[in-house]
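Researcher: Next entry in the queue.
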Amino acid sequence: MHTTDRHIGHAAHRHGAPGKRRFLVHYAEMVVAMLVGMLVLGGAVRGALALGGVEYGMATHPELTILEMALEMSIGMVAWMRIRGHGWAGALEMAAVMIAPALVLVPFVRLGVLGADTAMLLEHVAMFPLMFLAMLRRRGEYGGQSA
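Model: Structure for this entry, 147 residues:
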């Protein structure tokens, strides 16, 4: 290995760690944004419905509740991504991978093949690796490394 190659290799290593750290920080920010969206928007929806005297929740409207939660988490995440300066394409792609599990699982709940609580759990479990994969697809944007 030439001295120049070794220098480039060390520089790449030095720049790789901050990129990985930035990638992981972005992932953590997305998880927090999802939770905030779920709590804030979910609380607002539940509060408004309660004020209107509407019974709503997993017991009465499981399919809507599953879709609602995915949407609330996606809105929180997209809002935070836009605040952090990310473009619409990446933000909407991230929202799509958040909503996709709900869209796949809701028909199974509707048909009685899958319980609502199980579907909600599967929805949440699927979101995290799908979000990670979407971030890997755009790792240059999220971690400062080329794709």
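Model: Residues 3-143 form one domain.
Researcher: Noted, moving on.
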